[in-house]
Write the structure tokens for this entry.
Amino acid sequence: MGLVYADIELINAIDLGLMRRYKIGEDEVKRMKVNMLVDTRSVYMCINETVQEQLQLDIIEKRKGQLADGRVVEYDVVGPIEVRFENRRCVVDAMVLPGDNELLLGAIPLEDMDVMVHPYRRELIVNPEHPHFAQMTLK
């Protein structure tokens, strides 16, 4: 099918909470638009150190993950991050890859936002069965 990338907005979710409680102004909320590889085989979302620094995300824990070559490595997990794509949003944590590694949008945020990869157009789209809102299966 080939690689699929999507334009995603990442926002420091703690800043959003502070803004909603009128502790900081909207202009103080740390956010950025990024182009992420949509990786349906990756469960977790992965950002890099540059994004972590720009969004000033706190380290929550360390977690091990298995890479595509089978190696198991330990990375920092940061968050919370609000992820936005078109009319969808979710809040997730992310593993921090070293340096300027490629950003990965994994299965957890994809499922949470009810979005999917269109195989012929090779792009991320909102679920056409629910174009106006995300719908989850609760059973």
User: Anything to note?
Assistant: The helical segments are 13-20, 49-55, 107-113. The radius of gyration is 15 Å. Strands lie at 5-12, 31-38, 45-48, 58-66, 72-85, 88-97, 104-105, 115-118, 123-126. Residues 5-126 form a domain with the Cathepsin D, subunit A; domain 1 fold (CATH 2.40.70.10).
